[in-house]
Amino acid sequence: MKSKLCSLLAVLALLASQTVFAHSGDATGFASIGIDGNKVIYRLTPTIAGADDAKLVRLMHEKITVTADGQACPPSEPNGMEVDYVCPSAPNHLIIRDDLAVELGDKHHIIAVLTWSGGSSSLNFSATEREANVTLKGTEQPKGAASFFLLGVEHIATGYDHLLFLLALILCGGNLVQLLKIITAFTLAHSITLGAAALDIITLPSVFVEAVIALSIAYVGFENLFPRFAVSRRWTISFLFGLVHGFGFSSVLKEIGLPKDSLLLSLLNFNLGVEAGQLVAVLIIVPLLIQLRKTQWEEKTIRALSAIVLIVGLALFVERVVVSA
Fold this sequence. Notes:
This protein has helices spanning 2-22, 53-63, 101-104, 147-158, 160-171, 176-198, 206-225, 234-249, 251-256, 263-292, 298-324, and strands spanning 29-36, 39-46, 64-68, 71-73, 82-86, 93-98, 109-116, 119-126, 131-135.
């Protein structure tokens, strides 16, 4: 029993710490990579707080290399945050190598989507994962929309603030029926706003969205500590704040863009990927919570974890408001 309790504490402590790090500028950004004839067009949207764009452009030019069918594709002069790699001919097989970590450090991380006529693929670049090999022709490729499922899974796996909010909600979620209501409400809410934001039906300033997400984490932590101040049922809070989290989920899609030929299917796959990642997290944490409720440490442990959630949420709010000022 003690080992299970330690596992629970370790999981939530890791999420709390990673939530701070995930939004302090350690991720480099999102990339959109497109094929236009013999050109590989690489566009980067940085997420590093206070980033030196001129330095990033220089590094893109020097540290990102593209090889097509065994031949180097020299980079053109940068145009903003875009670099074109000109290949000898239209590529059949691409090798994209990202050595930005040499300059940016081990926390360098780029989420990218490569699109071409007839398919797309989600790619990941980091200090330990520097090279991607993609065959564009000659073999059956995943449809463009299908690759967005993996992108959704990856986005929720690295969206530690969303996970921390959800886990804080279910920390005092009650019985199984109440937990299902909480999770369902969160899923429905963020699915609505994810779709609306990704399709540009509704837009909100990202600074506002990120600040409210941080406040939602702090609020649930506060409510767990002082449940008598709760103004509504927990599933209602889950739904209301879930609407805001949906705008946060949409950020990666707005940066990378949805393929016009399979827009709705790509959006659906991305959302299903988010739900799959979310479900895995819930299936890990709920059994640990069930075991915790059989022990004498339940109340103290929940209060300690809720205090951590409250502090992290407030720290994130201050960070996001100060950075945006």
